[in-house]
Specification:
Structural class: alpha/beta
Radius of gyration: 27 Å
Strand content: 5-15%
Length: 427
Amino acid sequence: MNIIEELRWRGMLHNVTPDLEAACEKGQLTGYLGIDPTASSLTIGNLAALMMLLHFQRAGHKPVVLVGGATGMVGDPSGKDKERNLLDEAALNANQDAYKVQLSKLMDFEGENAAIMVNNYDWFKNMDVLSFLRNIGKNLTVNYMMAKDSVKTRLESGISFTEFSYQLIQGYDFVHLYKEYGCNVQMGGSDQWGNITAGTELIRRMLGSEEQGHAFTCPLITKADGSKFGKSEGGNIWLAPELTSPYQFYQFWLNTSDTDAKKYIRIFTFMGKEEIEALEAEHDAAPHTRILQKRLAQEVTTMVHSAEDYDMAIQASTILFGKGTKDTLLALSERDFLSIFDGVPQYNMPKAELAAGVDMISLLAEKTQICASKGEARRSLQGNSISINKQKIQDLAHQLNADDLISGKYLLAQKGKKNYSLIIVND
């Protein structure tokens, strides 16, 4: 199965230039995907496009990741209703370094068809404006450029010359990579089709009519309800663990709808067609088990983070929704602990108050408002519905001290099965 057939059954193919399938049958291709380093981390939105490049490499072709240090300074108008905020060179370089770390976990930068990472700032930084206009700009007419959707949708609200020129810069990237690396394929999201085909046109006009660049894109990914993919209530789902913890990452995939899970497991995993269809049949027979979502969350969390992070996410889920123990709670990093209990009621208490010990009635009804009164606190303790750090407490005289703190700073209180509160103890 060639790369085009692979992407087609997965629902990952939107546009394809003529003759690409025939080119796939002739031998190894070299293809690139461009990413502008406009944030400090890649997101799962970037991952959707990156999966095309990963499948491309797995099919035996040579992948190139182009990090747009130059295009990031200009700003891509595609899919935007207003101009982006432009970053300086230092910020773009820092973002590029972060991307390399994340990409190294996803693709092979060694071996026979090792991936290459390039930065278009390297070939644009010494190009003067007259050379750009004379050697590149003259090859595409204004009419041609204005016909692109990325430009047409912005004409009414206004588009700067900076953004208007973006397709020329991206188009020349394809020309440069074609000449320097033999790169004959460009891929990207469907919103990039205009910029990508500008590149194939520049190859033909600048290098000769017999030269040919190929391209394909993936469709825009949305949720079943029509909302934007890649975001949660807290914002973007990032690949960087310090921005989206592995637990939060795992939970995003675990909480997808049945319809979305069937789509995402094709796009974001390398599982084969027969295995996926068998898993779907098993899921349809017992949807309440959410076997499809569990496997999706396992595959993507392990791929982006690690098997250890996936195991920790399972343990974290057990703590919050199952029968977690104090030991599993103490095994969590502070980052994971806080991410699990993000959004639960929080109370602050000076650490000095723990020095001599704090009794449970005082903690529940005076130091915090976990219980509305001392009477409610007594009844809750006597009814075996209070836990501190996942340990049941019934003794009304039980004293807490600094030795009970998690990470030297936190107490986790639980009333009933689902009502958690986080007590933050400060110096």
